[in-house]
Each structure stands twice: as C-alpha cells, then as structure tokens.
C-alpha cells in the first residue's frame, strides 16, 4: 500500500472526528463585521492555532489593529513550498427567523434523495472549505509522521468585513510568507460531479453616494417641482449608468478590458453551460447583461455595475408627501483584468458630480476595492492540482472563471509574486452569506481526499 493509499484510508476512518472538529469551529461565532463578536472571533483564531499545533505546525495568533491572523508553519519536509490561505471569519447569520435551526449549532441534514449536508454559518464559507485542506495535512502527519511538503498556513479573520489589515500584514510578514505557490480553498466546483480550479476572479470597486438637496425634508405640495428632489436626481444617475443594451456609460470604463482568448472561450464552450438552468434556478429566464454576450462572459470576463441598495424619503407603511433632504445608494462595480479600481472610482465620481445640480451636493463614501486577477494554468502546480482532483472525482477537473472576488488573491500575486491555485468544493446552492448555509458531506469528505492527493502530487 502506498503512503497516499494509507492516507486516504486514514481520512475515511477518521471522518467522524474531522466532522467533529469542523463542528467545533462552526460553533464559534466569528462574525467579523460586528464588534459585539470580537472576543469570540479571537477565540476562533485561537482554536485554529491550537488545532494546527496538534498537526505539528508552529502556530501563532498575530494581532492586527482589527481581528487577529493565524500564521502557522510546518517546514519539516523538502519540496514545493505551499502558502495556504483561508478565512475563519463568517458573515452575520441574520435574518435568524429564516434558519431552520441555530446557525451556530451545526448539524447534518439528510435530503429526500438520501444525500447529506452540513448546516451552519461557515459550514461552507470558509470553515468547511479551509478545513478540507487542514484535515488533509492532519492525515499525512498521522500516517507518515510529517507533511509531504513544506506548508505555511495563513488564516484571516476579516475577509467578510473588508480585509483592511491584510495588505499591511502581507507587507510586514513578506519574508515569512515566501513559497513556490499559494493555494486557496474558497471557491466552487463546476457542478456536484465535476471539480474545478478557478483561474480568474473579478475585482471590486464599491462606493456609497449621498445626494443632499434641501436642508430639511419638505412638504411636496408647498415645494414640489420648485425644489430639487434627491430621489429623482439619484434615479437619473442610476438610469444613466447603463444604456439599453447593458453597456456601462462611464467614460473610459472599458479601458484595458480585453476579449477572452479563443483558448479560454473554447474551454468555456466545453463546459456545456445552460443559461436557462442557471437563471431558472433563481426564478428568472432573461439574461440582463450586455447584449451579444453569453452569460458566462457576463459573469466571468465582463465588468459590471450593480446597485446593491438605495434609500430615500419615506419608506414606512402608509404614505408621506415629502421631498427628502437626502437620497443614497450603494453601488458596486465588479472589475476585470486590467481595470484600475482607483481610476474607475474617480471616473464614477465625475460621472455623478456632472449630474448633481449646483444647489445640491453629493457625498461619497468609499468601500472596498481590489483589482481582478487571472492566472495562466500552464505552471506545474495547476496541472498537479488538476491531476489530484481528477483522480479523486473520476472526472477531469475544469478550469473555470469566477465572478466573485477574493481580494487576497490579487494581493498574493502582486505583493508576493506567486501564482494562486484556487481549488474549492463549494456548490452554487450552498447558500453562502444566506440563511441555512450548507456544505455537502461529499464536498467535505472528497475535498479532504482531494487535497491529500494534491499534496502528494506536489
Ligand atoms: N468565497 C467568496 C467568494 C466566492 C464564492 C468566489 C464562490 C467564488 C465562488 C468570498 O468569501 C466572498 O464572498 N467575497 C466577497 C468579497 C467582497 C466583499 C470584497 C464578494 O465576492 O462579494
Ligand atoms: Mn464569503
């Protein structure tokens, strides 16, 4: 029996214990955005640090001005050095009444078709996902006495709340983080049979705008028409952002946006993606993005502009004839390579200012920003990861694009100069950030087994 076979057998035999460990971390309410949970977020970092010590890592909980970062090293072995990134913080669980059980009391649910899933906040994003990698390390250590390759593990506690302290940490800890390649487990499979490596992610530029009109709310009978109405000004701005064909109208917005290469498009073609099924799953049927672009292009290789929230005037029950003093919107852009978030933010602000009357005023509040990122998959680490995953699932792992954002990926590439292999076992119906978040039991089990193979292949 090869070492790998023994490790895989150990993973199967130890699976209930792996589940128990995942449950332990899910029980810790590491909600990074809510200051009320700061102590429990730290407790979660400490739990992970201690857990990594049991696998032979030299692990520390490093303070930042916000939530701590766990940095753990096990460099006993020779060979390809890996920097693994995960995040131990989670999104708030609300609205609580939509959960079928306590979000922080994980449990296994059995579906009508007999399949099982782990329910709880963070079961998938990112506790379940990151524990697949950690459990694979544990199994290698238990069976062979050491890891097969040198590994550094970095666990962030602020991914879900802006990640303000990560760039500084990466700069300061640069020398400790050096590796041949970085790996992240925070992305999805292509479908529940087909594993996937995500090779590109979109960037983000998010901004809240406040349109201020009169210095108080006004009676719309006394002042209607004569006084500027911030709701209407905001509506005009939002309407102007895209034309009827879905093209974003901010001057210079598409600068640096390339067409996907024929190779990439050919690969996506093979994925046999159904637009009808994709939209049908959420109760829609008509692609709403740029005309003449497939849904895969719209979500993987084209930038977006989305209004995530708007507020203005009276929105309670009943009616109030008022002209509000202020109207606001939260607007975010998903960016692709090689758009510059700072340029986009500046161009957006000019676009808005040009539409605000001289007796009104606009205020801008910056949220996060990050550049898009894309990797060439010819490097050996991508090929070996693909091999390991394909062997486990009995189906070739697909190279796919990603519509979401994982800001650390861009930072690792730009600050540390490394490729990042994003291999994950999430499914599109995991309800991450939503009530009843789940991780399929198969994702967890075969995810651990996949990483065990990938570590061997590396
Ligand atoms: N893990 C997700 C992103 C993700 C999920 C990528 C599935 C690919 C497949 C990540 O934790 C996330 O939610 N990111 C945020 C980042 C933002 C707030 C900066 C996002 O994409 O909205
Ligand atoms: Mn997330």
From TrEMBL:
Top-rank lineage group of the source organism: Bacteria
InterPro entries: Cyt/Met_Dipeptidase, Peptidase_M20, Peptidase_M20_dimer
A single GO molecular function term of this UniProt record: metal ion binding
Single GO biological process annotation from the record: proteolysis
Pfam families found in the cross-reference section: M20_dimer, Peptidase_M20
Keyword line: Hydrolase, Metal-binding, Protease
The species this protein was found in: Gemmobacter aquaticus
Domain Peptidase M20 dimerisation: 200-359
Name of the protein in its database record: Peptidase M20 dimerisation domain-containing protein
